[in-house]
Amino acid sequence: MAPMDTVHDVIVVGAGPAGLTAATLLHAAGLDTLCVEARDRVGGRLASIDGYDVGATWFWNGEQRVTNLVAELGITAFDQHRHGDALLQDHTGVQRFRGNPIDAPAYRFPTGADTLATGLAARLPDAALRLSTPVTGIRLDNDTVHLQTGSEVLHARQVVLAVPPALAVARITFDTPLDPDLARLAAIIPVWMGAAAKVVVRYRAPFWRTAGLAGAAISRTGPLREIHDMSGPDGTRAALFGFAHATDIGPGFEQTVTAQLTAMFGPPAAEIEALHVQNWSAEQWTSPAGATQQNNYGLFGHPRFQQPTLGGRLHWASTETAPDYTGHIEGALYAGQQAANAVLTAATATKIG
Ligand SMILES: Cc1cc2nc3c(=O)[nH]c(=O)nc-3n(C[C@H](O)[C@H](O)[C@H](O)COP(=O)(O)OP(=O)(O)OC[C@H]3O[C@@H](n4cnc5c(N)ncnc54)[C@H](O)[C@@H]3O)c2cc1C
After folding, report:
1. Are 256 and 134 in contact (CB under 8 A)?
2. How far apart are CA 86 and CA 129, in angstroms?
3. CA distance 243 to 228
4. Nearest atom in ligand 1 to 331's CA
5. 37 CB under 6 A from ligand 1?
6. Which end of the chain has fewer surrounding CB within 10 Å, N or C?
């Protein structure tokens, strides 16, 4: 380390909702904060294309952190469309149910869930957020953590690792090794939705609503296993979306999806304007290799991730580490807040000590 190198109070690795929450709180508290993000955009699994969510879609009643953030950012959330009948597809065919037992009451972001991330990022000065900056190595040296990114090394007193633990240990070389039990645990904690693909299918109009359908469906035959209306407010930007397992994607997948939707929703479902397949298992900065095989969800929010590691200087923060609302955006905000509090406590102790 050269004598003139900057040592930041804290570096946050990852600009998803957890990392941005931590970074904005720490910056607001007056710490010299740098947030580094591997992708060329913020948001992580909050990702929207032309306002259509290809990652997270909803938030729910009782999720106070998201509700507060939505209010602070001046976002006018709207209700998930639920009105109409639901469908069930199995090997005997397609059945229609009176009403919609599939969709729980939920709220949507009118221009996409990524507005939460861009809104948070706007609270940071330009110099405090670096995109296209993947961290590939971490080393502790006395009271300083060194982060390798490309040919550059960044330095900080404390680090918030705001990426899923399994991804962190797959993509980052810990030159100062993690405790072996912790490293093993991190490697097997699943990435929430890391095995999922989200298929967004756009239409000229929400034709299913005219037929008295909610757009909600469950299929036991697939490839889309769960389908929902994904239109914008008042049925604008008409769309359905479905979840598939990433292992179901292969040659002819789009044609199979079109055939499934047509079998379920009728011939207008074949009149597709655009179809987007977002395979999260293939995203280098979301899922490690083997994400489709991980299913040990009981490890979510594990106590080991509530404790800092590397001499108390590395704090975990992703939705997978949140003690509550794990997997949700709300969990990511929780984890980010918790990590920020831990960093502030440690920073205060160092100043006093
Ligand atoms: C298809 C899908 C649907 C979902 N639906 C919902 C929903 O409806 N409601 C809900 O509440 N939640 C939903 N979720 C979950 C929600 O998206 C996550 O809980 C949330 O995004 C997690 O935030 P995070 O900050 O913990 O992680 P992420 O959003 O994954 O952010 C991590 C960030 O770290 C970056 N990064 C990774 N490695 C490095 C590195 N080495 N160096 C630098 N940066 C790095 C990544 O690029 C990313 O930006 C869904 C997720 C998916 C995939």
Report:
1. no
2. 44
3. 9
4. 19
5. yes
6. C
**Under 8 Å between Cβ of 194 and 164:** yes
What is the average pLDDT value for the chain, to the nearest integer?
96
How far apart CA 286 and CA 205 sit, in angstroms, is 33
- Of the pLDDT bands very low, low, confident and very high (cuts 50, 70, 90), residue 351 is low
- Band (348; pLDDT cuts 50, 70, 90): confident
Q: What angle do helix axes 17-28 and 329-352 make, rounded to 10 degrees?
A: 30
78-109+195-282 has the same fold as 7-48+115-191+294-352:
no
State the average pLDDT over residues 34-52.
Answer: 97
Our answer on whether the CB atom of 319 is closer than 6 Å to any ligand 1 atom is yes
Whole-number percent of the chain with pLDDT over 70:
99
Q: What is the Å distance from ligand 1's center to 254 Cα?
A: 25
Peptide bond into 268 cis (omega under 30): no
User: Any idea which fold 7-48+115-191+294-352 has?
Assistant: FAD/NAD(P)-binding domain (3.50.50)
Q: What is the rounded CA–CA span in Å between residue 58 and residue 60?
A: 7
Residues 269-299 as b/e (b if ≥16 CB within 10 A, e otherwise) read beebeebbbbbbbebebbbbeebbebeeeeb
Ligand 1 contact via 339 beta carbon (within 6 Å): no
46 lines ligand 1 (CB under 6 A): yes
State residue 352's pLDDT score: 52
Q: What is the pLDDT of residues 229-274, one digit of tens each?
A: 999 999 999 999 999 999 999 999 999 999 999 999 999 999 999 9
Q: Enumerate the domain spans of the chain.
A: 7-48+115-191+294-352, 78-109+195-282
| CB-side neighbour CA atoms (13 Å) of 137 | 13
pTM of the full predicted structure?
Answer: 0.97
DSSP symbols for 22-87: HHHHHHHTT--EEEE-SSSSS-TT--EETTEESS--EE-TT-HHHHHHHHHTT---EEPP--SEEE
Q: Which residue has the tokens 């804290």?
A: 10
